[in-house]
Design a protein that fits this description.
five-stranded parallel sheet; 6 helices
Length: about 200
Amino acid sequence: MTAPLPEPADPAPPAGPRFAVLRRVAVGLAGLLLVLGVLTAAGLPVFVHPQVDPLRPADAIVVLGGTPYERFDLGLELAERGLAPELVISASTGLNDPVMAKYCAGEHPFRVSCFEPEPWTTQGEAQEIRRRAAAEQWRHIIVVTFTPHVSRARYIVGKCFGGELTMVASPSRTDLPFTAWMYIRQSAGYLKAFTEIGC
């Protein structure tokens, strides 16, 4: 007597809509992580390790505005080292800011002048640089700003100033929340700058 044949196994149930949704979510997350990885890698030489230039004497040192204030201390230090006869400071926190008095109203062995940019943007600062460069015949300036802003500032100021630019990075925070915010903020600023024609 032969043994009974085993009953055929039930076919695998068809993948339901829930499986399809989970698969789309997984593919979407993988794509998002890939994009974030590419953007992070692309942003490293722009926002984290931007190109800075070797220092040499210039016609003026220009410190772009903003906080923290360490960039203004760096501008003063460069002027005290004799790298330029004039220090120009963008008082983007306002000329009424009492902290700025240390820089704008202090006594220094070199000329110091402060201005409020109009508009209060990097482009406004670059337009003021263009005016002063034309009036004072600057051919070479040292521009000081904080690290994540160096590349974008080079692009914007370079559209307004035809002379030689020496970009100097003032150290800035490196924690993850700040760096992530700088990626977003500076990228948006780049997109805006790319759409603006001329200085």
